[in-house]
Design brief:
The chain has 389 residues and is of the alpha+beta class. 39% of the residues lie in helices and 20% in strands. It contains 15 helices and ten strands.
Length: 389
Amino acid sequence: MGARTKRKISEEELSRWRLIEEFERRLEQAAAVRKEPRTFSDPRRKLGQKDYLSLLLFGLFNPVVDSMRGLCAASRLQRVREEICSARVSLGSFSEAQAVIDPALLQRVFTELATEQQCRNFQESDQRLEPYRKQLLVVDGTLWRALPRMAWALWRSQHGKESALKLHLKFNLLEEKPVGAVVSSARRCERAVLRTQLAAGEFYVGDRYYGEDYALFSELERAGCSYLLRLRQEAHFEVKEESPLSAADQVAKVTFDGLVRLGVGRWRQEALVRLVRVQSERGELLLVSNKAREELSAELLALIYRSRWRVELFFKWLKCILGCRHWLAESQRGVALQVYCALIAALLLLRRSGRRPGKRAMEMIRFYLLGYATLDELSAALGLKEKRS
């Protein structure tokens, strides 16, 4: 038997599933641009491309299902077959689908959402940074533990051999949303990934790992990118020019602003870079940037870097509150599909409520999915007014 055609669902019925319905609509638009793998046109295949990806997203929102077996069991429910997938899904079909779906399809959906999304209730920030709303991006990575049998994710750590994968993220600092992502094994270097993602006009903020490679500074300059990176405390530099500090700089605990030459001996760099030294509670920060003093003061550079921690909060939210921890697939491609679904879920929730839901709000979403909370109660918890048909 071939896959059944989904019946038309009314707006009232969709009040409980609108995020998945919007995801499916966007998935269809992205699939129209990319040719669907031939295997999905085979009449013997019951699990369609959209059905598989919708089940993955459903697993992130559902408060009960946390495994591949659970998702396959849920596909036996009539409502799930009507609104999520077209037919019952076997373990074999679900496992096989990850090998034939290209993660680039979800990457297209993610990029579209990230581009058009405008966070209404973004965290309060200095209005002087408003011209950099679309440009100011934190670049960072986070690790997930992988199963020992995921041989592709094997890497070395200080505790011996382990399996882990890494999400390399571009995170819009002012709107607090992901805008670019690459999923790889933990072995892949974050600087190497950034070098493949350079885009003229973007302004990158990075931690000490990015500041270790002085050659990266000139590469960013040639690519037309701005940067604000932290140096390690043991970095060597020679002061060539020191600029006077304003009262605002001093209030921000800036102790130095000027041009320096980095490195010593054969590692000595010829090009001068701007160095800003900032005193923090945990010690001194050494920040380098190619932004001129006339464009961004030392005070604002210090403010930007101190806001970098917002990406760490997003990683914690993704893993702990959204609950993207249990792997529903084991191949590198399957894991990439699941992580992209999690990022898309984050953007859909942001689009719906104007901010990332906290723990209590996510609990209310799940109470709603279980039928214990009304639509009005959910809307009140998310701080929005739901439009009914």
